[in-house]
Write a structure and sequence with these properties.
By secondary structure, the chain is mostly beta strands. The chain is built from no helices and 21 strands. Strands 1, 3, 4, 6, 7, 9, 11, 13, 14, 16, 17, 19, 20 and 21 form a 14-stranded mixed beta sheet that branches. A seven-stranded parallel beta sheet has the order 2-5-8-10-12-15-18, with no helix packed on it.
Length: 174
């Protein structure tokens, strides 16, 4: 499948992904937005590969870096999100892997249901590191979650090898 390069709109407004497919960053994406989403996904079955690059916003921004809250089958991999509001907001049946979500002003990752969150570093965010709400159909494994003001994890099902604030989480039963 062909991949589509993500290019920041000349207007500086929200980048909207409205077709299923595979998308990638080819450079750091510094957004001027302070409140609107930086990337808004309005389609199911979308993959976004940050290719090791960073998405960031102005200091104090309340913007969501990648907003796919109403969509299903979204995959986000391989990059860094920093200085935004909530880093990633997902709908259902979605995955996040290989991401560094650092010093954002909201949650690291929010997911509605049935998400798999693995192999990420989620640290220094003002909200909750992993926010699944009351959902238990989502799973998380092999993440490092630390220093998030709102807490480490809400909801979800731990699948092992997570580290929260320097200790295994959840703590093993005695």
């Amino acid at each position: 499948h062909a991949q589509t390069k993500i290019a920041k709109p000349a207007s500086g407004n929200t980048l909207v992904i409205s077709k299923s497919g595979s998308y990638f960053l080819a450079a750091n994406y510094v957004s001027p937005l302070k409140a609107a989403s930086i990337i808004s996904v309005n389609a199911n079955n979308v993959t976004i590969n940050l290719n090791g690059f960073t998405i960031s916003a102005p200091t104090g921004s309340a913007t969501t870096a990648i907003n796919a809250a109403g969509d299903s089958g979204v995959t986000i991999v391989n990059g860094t999100i920093t200085s935004t509001g909530t880093a990633i907001s997902l709908g259902s049946n979605s995955t996040v892997s290989g991401m560094q979500l650092i010093n954002n002003k909201g949650d690291g990752i929010k997911c509605t249901s049935a998400c798999l969150i693995s192999n990420n570093i989620i640290t220094g965010n003002s909200g909750i590191g992993l926010n699944f709400g009351s959902d238990t159909t989502s799973g998380y494994q092999s993440n490092i979650i630390s220093g998030n003001t709102g807490g480490t994890v809400t909801g979800g099902t731990p699948m092992g090898t997570n580290v929260c604030n320097g200790v295994a989480c959840p703590a093993p039963a005695p």
